[in-house]
Amino acid sequence: MNSASERKLKKLLEIFIVSTRLGLTSFGGPIAHLGYFHQDYVRRKKWIDEESYADLVALSQFLPGPASSQVGIGIGVMRGGVLGGIVSFIGFTLPSVLVLILFASLLHTFDLSNAGWIHGLKIVAVVVVAHAILGMAKQLTPDMQRKTIALIALVTTLLIPSTYTQIAVILMAALIGFFIYRRTVISDQSISISRFPISKRLGCLSLILFFGLLILLPILRETVNSHWIALFDSFYRSGSLVFGDGHVVLPLLEQEFVPTGWLSEEQFLAGYGATQAVPGPLFTFAAYIGAVTNGWIGGIIATIAIFLPAFLLILGALPFWDSLRSNPNIRSALMGVNASVVGILFSALYHPIWTTSILTTADFILAAFLFGMLVFWKLPPWTVVLAGALGGTFIGYF
To answer: Transmembrane segments in this chain: where (predicted)?
Structure first.
């Protein structure tokens, strides 16, 4: 094996280790995941800068599928090409998939979703997200105009809580940013170039495959009497048509599988409870449904099917992203978009993360202590996660 291959293998192994650690510790849903990603990929590893990270988050908000998983895939692609994206996805997703396939019934039996340590991990998510947003706000809203855009985005998304509201807010922020900053952004201004190591040809092929499967799978389902094609189609379609986090996909999955008798309402709710008790993306709920209906093979196929649209879309969009964001007009719009992302994340920090995690004075005290560990004492994130779990367990006794 030559030195170039060894370096590539070493880089892929590093991506897998970091993403797996995140997959084991990232509780709290997609917005919390973005906070954990920011902590590891931006602050600690410095694989991506603040501006590129915010751009990637904004791009993922536009695309259907799990936004946090798409951000993780995008960072993996930047670091190690297409293989890096695949490895990053596997590392982040595999822990929760295995837990849901093997232990969903056990989690439901003992009702671990209500355990004190789970509540402590939710409080950790509050701290991690708050830290990430404060860092992004300092970088992305330096002037009064962008602070105002962020505030308007925060208020709007709280008053009208909807994924479509978020998309509308981002579009409006892009328009406002274009008109405010188009005369101040010049073409030779320095900008960090991400240089995603994938070709535009591969991007086009990925987009063609995405739309081709979306059209052909329902046709195959009707013409070929195959249970596996039907299973793959149901999950692929659900993953293709959902904007936002995993909670949004739940009604689609329930409609696909409960009325058809593939699983009961009780089984569906039990799996949802188990999914809340494990780290990683909520889309891995598909692994539980697949395992209930078709064993561990069904769980793996369901996971691939529901995440495949997100993977194809992010691969399709990334090759064109740098050429767009280096354009002065696009960059002026992105200045507004990045400010709106800060506001949207602040909104999500309050609801649902804060409102479902900080329920008592003791919760707030624990959150303040964990924030001090992370920000003031600069302790490793895993120690904050462990302290949060122990603190939540202690609070649960009172």
So the answer is: 12-37, 86-107, 119-137, 149-181, 202-220, 296-321, 333-351, 357-377
Q: Answer for the pair 311, 77: CB distance below 8 angstroms, yes or no.
A: no
Cα separation, 18 vs 42, whole angstroms: 12
Give the whole-angstrom CA distance, residue 364 versus residue 282: 26
| Residue % of the chain over a pLDDT of 70 | 87
Number of domains present in the structure of the chain: 1
For residue 288 the two structure tokens come to 């539980």
CB atoms < 10 A from the CB of 109, how many? 11
Task: Quick: pLDDT tens for 260-297.
Answer: 788 877 677 666 656 766 788 888 889 988 888 888 88
In the chain, what is the straight-line distance between the N-terminal and C-terminal CA atoms, in Å? 59
Q: Which domain holds residue 358?
A: 1-398
Cα 98 to Cα 394: distance, rounded to the nearest angstrom:
28
pLDDT tens figures, 10-33: 999 999 999 999 998 887 777 788
CA distance 274 to 287: 11
H helices of the chain, where? 3-25, 30-37, 50-62, 67-110, 116-140, 144-159, 163-181, 200-223, 227-240, 246-257, 265-276, 285-325, 328-348, 355-357, 361-371, 381-396
Q: Which contiguous run of DSSP H or E holds residue 243? A: strand 243-244
